[in-house]
Amino acid sequence: MKEIYFLKPLFFEKIWGGTRLEKNFGYHIPEDIDKHKVGEAWGISGHYKGRNTIINGKYKGMNLDDLWKTHPEIFGEDGSRGDFPLQLRLVDAQDDLSIQVHPYEEYAMKHENQHGKNEAWYIIECQPDSKLIYGSNANTKGELKQMVAEGRWNDLVRYKNIKAGDFVYVPSGIMHAICAGTMVLEIAQCSDVTYRFYDYDRVDKNGNHRPLHIEKSIDVLTVPTPNVSLNKKVIKYPHSTKEIYLDNEFFYIAKITVNGAHNIKNDKPFGACCVLNGSGKIMDYEIKKGDFFIVPSDIKTMNIEGNLEMIIACA
Ligand code: ZN
């Protein structure tokens, strides 16, 4: 029988984290984490700071990095190459995240020996009239340096209005921050390099500030802020809808909504999936909100039934 592979999420305590990963998704949070500060659930990751384990089937117990390297055929590859290219994580921002930027590939490799990071967010939940920090008002690096030196954050940052169900693409080099109350599914390249401009002068439970990386942030920020346009494609079927948010050199990201039963073609080498809402079945597997799984390359048609929304991503 053809198998899909479910992964066990990993949880991370964050200064800005909250309780919704437990409350809304029903996850069991490990004892060593403060339940009131759960910021992230990594669901699909081969990154060295957190590798998810397969929990079913013939590769049960293997982590994603090992599976990727030893079984390239699952991912439609003839041979392994580098790191598993994607990371999917749920983020619960009870408080504002730091004002940050991620480096592009060349810079990250040179300075951090890690990949660059382009990322995208599907907004799961937010307050009415919510905003994100997205882009800056600096037109030159000189202006940027001056505004940062003077701490003129209100003049520097740009805001973007958001609501639940929005999709936001954040290429490397764009200043950004998720603000208090927002919960997202983040789909990113395999990298954990974040440069912080500003962290609201917060201290952690030990009274320490988190490090800032002003010089590197200034190095990698793109000025002026480029226009990032999305070409969303919507394909409607009798009992399902596929919304393709992004299909570029880094990502393929789509949302599938099913109400009933439908055979959905999987024309990508593999699918990294997260169920956002509802429940149902894929092939013979029960799936529900909060499940993360990988659809391998030998499954070309996904038979899905139920009432659910899920994200499917590929690199
Ligand atoms: Zn980020």
List keywords for this structure.
315 residues, mainly beta, Jelly Rolls, nine-stranded antiparallel β-sheet, six-stranded antiparallel β-sheet, globular, binds zinc ion
CATH topology of the largest domain: Jelly Rolls
Ligands bound to this protein structure: zinc ion
Main sheet overview: 9 strands, antiparallel
Give the number of helices: 6
Shape: globular
Computed structural class: mainly beta
Specify the CATH homologous superfamily of the largest domain: Jelly Rolls
Number of domains: 2
Number of strands: 22
The string of secondary-structure elements, in order, is EEHEEEEHEEHEEHHEEEEEHEEEEEEE
CATH architecture of the largest domain: Sandwich
End-to-end gap: 26 Å
Gyration radius (Cα, Å) is: 20 Å
CATH class of the largest domain: Mainly Beta
User: How large is the share of residues in beta strands?
Assistant: 35-45%
Low-confidence segments, given as residue ranges, are none
Account of the protein in words:
It is a single chain. This protein has 315 residues and is mostly beta strands. Helices cover 12% and strands 42% of the residues. It is built from six helices and 22 strands. The strands form five sheets. Strands 1, 6, 16, 17, 18, 19, 20, 21 and 22 form a nine-stranded antiparallel beta sheet that branches. A six-stranded antiparallel beta sheet has the order 2-3-7-14-9-12. It has a three-stranded antiparallel beta sheet with strand order 11-10-13. The radius of gyration is 20 Å and the shape is globular. The protein starts with a strand and ends with a strand. The model has no long low-confidence stretch (mean pLDDT 94). Zinc ion binds at residues 100, 102, 119, 176, 194.
